[in-house]
Amino acid sequence: MSMFTMQKWQHDALAHDLAEHLRRNTSRFVWEDMQLGPSGSARPDVYAVPFSFSKFCPVAYECKISVSDFRADVTKGKYTRYLSYASGVVFAVPEGLIKKSELPAGCGLMVRGGNGWRNVKGPTMQAVDNLPRDAWIKLLIDGIARENKRTELKIRQACVWFTERELAKRHGDEIATLVARAYTATDNLADEIARCDEQREAIRNQTHHELQYSREAVARAVERLNHAQKELALSLGLPEESTIRQLTLAIQDASRRLQGDAEVMRLRQLFSSVKRAINSASEPLPGEGV
Description:
6 helices, alpha/beta, about 60% helix, about 10% strand, 6-stranded mixed beta sheet, MmcB family DNA repair protein, 6 strands, tt1808, chain A, single chain
């Protein structure tokens, strides 16, 4: 495949195309761009769980449309975060982007060519007994809501196609095409508004989590400071609940006492020197009788 064909893919379009391929050609539940838990959790481009009551082996797909993005992901080990939620990880790329030999150990590879998707290498599967509770909640609640929207979109597209055919019979293909484009533009606008609302809500939730984390960090710092303050009060012989002013006065008093002790030591050393001098002066001189 030529470089021009490789570059025509946008990331989201490639991920959606892969998801549709898996829905049509495999027996799996498929989710797109689904965060598997609270803010900061792993978020594979496509996540699939086979229809099986006996073997639980979900697979996470990471889509790449540039070599630099692929190499950066491999270097940082971003794909390894998916292994907490998946039995295997598969990189999905336009055909010709990377070689099988460039894959990290254990990862699979699927490529999108002119005739569709092709499996180049399967991932090394590992056992996953279950998913965290938060992941199941996201997959069920958000997943069902997204599936409903996807079904609704397909129904709208079918209605637009039927309307276009009816108009073509009555008024000709040109009028039918214009009306169909108007319907499609309206639907696309509504979908884009809904997507923006979802992004705004996700940003708001993330900001809330970050603010909560900052508050908790400040609370921990205050707790450590209060503990240190209590220890200082006890070491100075004061009650634990002493104020900062009381601690300051006690420290100043202790400092003065330390300085006083130093003066006493200096005077004692001076008296010792004087005593030694007196004792030395009282000794008989050479040749002097005792």
